[in-house]
Amino acid sequence: MLSAHALTRDFGERRAVDRVDLTVRPGRITGFVGANGAGKTTTMRMLMGVLGPSSGEVRWHGRPATAEDRRGFGYMPEERGLYPRMKLAEQLAFFARLHGAGRSEARARAGELLEFFDLGDRADDLLDSLSLGNQQRVQIAAALVHRPTALVLDEPFSGLDPHAVDAMLELLQREAGEIPVLFSSHQLDLVERICDDVVVLAGGRVVSAGSVDDLRSQETPSYRVEVVG
Ligand code: ATP
Fold first, then answer.
1. Does the entry feature the keyword Nucleotide-binding, yes or no (predicted)?
2. Which of 72, 95, 160, 216 is deepest in the core (most CB within 10 A)?
3. What is the pTM of this model?
4. Each residue's pLDDT tens digit, 188-206
């Protein structure tokens, strides 16, 4: 279980994230929604430890998350972060090794994920020779390649066509069966379709949180108000 407790981040005078509490449970997919600038990316960076909080804490299974805990997490950052001039298979194996996988395991797993996305015959192509949709597939493969213990995905479906979204969902549901998954999205139909839980952020604060079924039963679900305006 991955959780945030009164997580807060200031940038100068501006409070971007304000005492955020959230819990992402194993085997459940949690959607993280909110308008532009609500603080989703800043919160996710703190969960991953790439940005320190001004105050508050991130916990993994109830105790403060360590760097070693986070090495097991899979992260798809907003700014992406793959290497455009690196071959696909090499790149995925590299990420697996960074997270502690052995050499042959890393290679096998990279091959398996490329096959899943029908990119097996492009294993030796450079990333920047792929379409943007295919680059995005490789990006999610990079988050999954070390069999993560938790997944934090910043807008993983943005810019994808419906076919690519479905392929990614199938992979997520297959790979992330027992682990906590948090992803941010502006696509509310998608959140309603695949998430178990939703956390709604506005102005850096959690304004609503609960199961999709509970929130959807409200006459005007609060996440629709916050995101659509
Ligand atoms: P989006 O959906 O547009 O990605 P978001 O919900 O992810 O938005 P954040 O990117 O977390 O929101 O930004 C929250 C607020 O914090 C914004 O006002 C943003 O300008 C500010 N902010 C984020 N990072 C920094 C930074 N490094 N320095 C100063 N301000 C920042």
1. yes
2. 95
3. 0.91
4. 888 888 899 999 999 999 9
Cα 129 to the center of its chain, rounded Å: 25
- Which amino acid, 21? D
The ipTM, to two decimals, is: 0.95
Cα torsion through 45, 48, 49, 54, rounded to 10: 50
Q: Please tell me the distance between residue 15's alpha carbon and the centre of ligand 1 in angstroms.
A: 10
Q: Whose CA is nearest to atom 28 of ligand 1?
A: 11
Distance 218 CA to ligand 1 centre (A): 29
